[in-house]
Amino acid sequence: MNILSDKTFHKRLYLLFTLMMLMMMAAPKISTLLAEQRNGSNGDQSIIERSGNQITLTKFRGDGQFVIAGQKAPIPLTVMAMEDGRPATGITINFNVVEDPSKGNGTNLANAEIETNSKGTASTDLVLGEKEGKYIIQATVLGNESEESNVYFHISGKCKNWVFFLITGMLGGLGLFLFGMEMMGNGLRDWAGDQMKTILGALTKHRVYGLVVGMVVTAAMQSSSATTVMLVGFTNAGLMSLRQAIGVILGADIGSTITAQIVAFKFTDYALMFIGAGFILQLAAGKKDNVLYLGKVILGFGILFFGLKVMGDVMNPLCEFPPFVDMMAKAENPFIAMLASTIFTSIVQSSGATTSLVVALSSQGLITMNAAIPLIFGANIGTCITAALATIGTTSREAKRVAIAHYSFKILGVIMFFFLIKQLALLVQNISIWTTNATWETVTNPDYLPRQVANAHTVINVALALMFLPFTRQLERIIYLIYPEDKTPPQKKFGPKYLDPFLLDIPELALRQARRELLRMFKHTQRMIDDIMTAFRERNIEFVDQAIEVDEKVDILEVSIKEYFTQLAQRKSSETQSKRRIEMFFHADELEKIGDIISKNIMPQISQLVEHKLYFSEEGWKELNRFHGLVGENFERAMEAFRNNDLKAAEEIVRDKQRLIRYYKNLQMAHLERLCAQDDDTSRTSQIHLDILGNLRGVNSHITNIAINMLEHARATGDPNFHLDTEDIEDIEELGSYEKSVLKSIKQDEKEEPSDDYDD
Predict the structure, then answer these.
(1) 574: which residues sit within 8 A by CB, 6+ positions away?
(2) Does 583 share its domain with 521?
(3) Sign of the C-alpha dihedral, residues 581, 583, 586, 590?
(4) Same domain for 226 and 111?
């Protein structure tokens, strides 16, 4: 799929951009209002008593502001002096800048000394210097400079577009993280190569195997969403049942926790080292694919952690940003936190991205364990959106049941754990104490929180898998009750049965399905060949229409298979897979030509026989039957050779080519001898007789080409079962000139950009 033309991607990008713009516009105003609210109440005061008399000095307003560098703080710095519980008037307050990133360049206090008013308050305006950073303003009662009598205002100076840089930094870091995760997954998937088919075969054995396979495949691809999309494709193509898919879904949920576990290792300081190592491995790989794939894995690993480092660095100032601190306080409401996490995960379509972001927040001390767990719940639910989107456009009810099963497990799991958040937090804290140097006094420190978040994610999904796995049969029945079979009879419209677009990203399985479709094409073509002599014997013109109808089916399958291969050519595949795709491409072409010869050249001859009341001579009829039998036998041998990849049978077909040509010439000579003998039936049917013989020879030529295509593929891939001698190889090269020209054309097309003209 071309992501630039994906409408869903455009909508998600537009939503993220809109949210970014709204946050940029609202952040300064929110900061001011919240700072006023925080400082206008007595609930967040720092009280210092002046020793020597009973005057208490407290911060009243203006602390904790975020101010643009070079501009005046929107809220004056205000203190309140109290004496014996009453406002102290006429007390001189001294304001002094004790920490200034600008070194006095532009930093200005409107009133360095000012007396308290009738309400006991004294205030001054502050203009920040030109540099961003932390500004600290000291306020003290004049004449008492002891440290315990001081109060301090902390003001954060930011550049004008700091909100923009914060959001773009977050999005950039998230983009690097997702890109690195995808690269690492692709490298592992490429490394596995054709083993995907073997792994899939294990699913048919036991639900526990399905659980393990789901874990392995998801850990390799770093995406449970990708695994469930594959399951939708597999069930849609009939490769597995819903019961088998349930085990894989539960395993995929466990495998998705690997990302958070990796992130919790805090390799961010070594990210560039991994990037460099991966880059060098890819440069030095040459033709060694395994080294290239290893380099891709390490490079993706480094980019993943570099993205986390970027996100962590840009989020660090949020620790002191009042709107964000207040928002995180509200995140203690588990329902709001879960809802926000669900929406975010649905947009980015990656639970790994959400949980990794939660890990990053916890590492900065921006979030507590009790707030992190609802975010994990939301990530678990939000990741189901990908499988749901994958079922849009498919008519397979089994595929839709996979998406329902995925949502059902996640929602049931959240309901079960939602009221156990404190107990779950306590459990992962205990695990942290058992496995690290943490104590009950330090277990909530940011140094230990990332691992606790990752462990919570793992504990939730492992517990769900252990609870649901023994009941896969019962769960399957429940899902069938939720979404039963459609009782309305399906509309009969001929088309491909096995060409599933969901499998295009797994070339081995896509080729396997295309092979099944090609065998359907073989069978329809065989039916046309078998009907030839029956139609002439019965002199039934209905066979003409029947041949045209079957030929249309062959044409539909040919077009569908070629379009499927064209789309598959845009995906990454191994050299062997590419050659196998091209081999089947040629087979489809040969079968379509056989169908055309029969429906357009052979079958219409029946009408002439019936219309002019013509009959073949006895000898001529026997000759046609014998030659047709040889051609039909050759076709059946070719079909079985393709079905079983029997190169020996293909070699025999090629070797018999000359024998059949000699027999064809002998039949021509026998016909000419009957003409010379002035046989009436022979003379009246001569043209039809020779046309049928010539067209049957043409059919056999295309059958031979199918065998040649198989042998060409075997020779190109170095198959040890390829045994033809030099003379036969020259015949292949001579007869395969057309195929080679088409192959050159296909390779040229593959270099071009993917086309969006194909509708799956």
Answers:
(1) 193, 194, 507
(2) yes
(3) negative
(4) no
pTM above 0.85, yes or no: no
Same domain flag for 295 and 440: yes
Distances in whole angstroms, Cα of residue 66 to Cα of each of 62, 134, 511, 652: 10, 10, 59, 84
Tell whether 1 is covered by a domain: no
Residue 22 lies in a domain: no
Residue 201 domain-assigned? yes
Spatial separation of the C-alpha atoms in residues 464 and 260, rounded to whole Å: 18
Phi, psi of 141 (to 5 degrees): -80, 125
Residues contacting 562, CB < 8 A, separation 6+: 585, 588, 589
The H or E element spanning position 58 is strand 55-61
Instruction: Place 205 in a pLDDT band, splitting at 50, 70 and 90.
Output: low
Helix axes 647-655, 657-676, angle to 10 degrees: 30
The vertex-294 CA angle with 293 and 297, nearest 5°, equals: 90
Burial class (CB in 10 A: 0-12, 13-18, 19+), 176: buried
Pick the last residue of a domain from 452, 482, 512: 482
Structure tokens at 118: 């009738």
Distance between CA atoms of 533 and 598, rounded to whole angstroms?
A: 11
Rounded distance between C-alpha atoms, residue 546 and residue 532, angstroms: 11
pLDDT tens for residues 620-644?
Answer: 889 899 999 999 999 999 999 999 9
Looking at residue 729, its pLDDT comes to 43
Domain boundary among 160, 185, 203: 160
End-to-end CA distance of the chain: give it in Å, rounded: 11
Phi and psi dihedrals of 685, rounded to 5? -105, 15
Residues 155 and 169 in one domain: no
CB 259 within 8 A of CB 357: no
pLDDT digits (tens, 9 = 90+) for 537-560: 888 888 888 888 999 999 999 999
Confidence of residue 701 (pLDDT cuts 50, 70, 90): very high
pLDDT at 518 over 90: yes
Same domain membership, residue 308 and residue 431: yes
Q: Does one domain contain both 452 and 509?
A: no
**Helices 542-568/507-538 angle, 10° precision:** 170
Cα three-residue angle 547-549-555, rounded to 5 degrees: 100
Give the range of the structural domain holding residue 669, as residue numbers without chain letter. 503-750
Rounded Cα–Cα distance for residues 705 and 593 (Å): 11
Query: How many independent structural domains does the chain possess?
Result: 3
- Inside any domain, residue 471: yes
Same-domain check for residues 128 and 194: no
Say if residue 146 is in the same domain as residue 198. Answer: no
- For 657-701, the DSSP string reads HHHHHHHHHHHHHHHHHHHHTT-HHHHHTHHHHHHHHHHHHHHHH
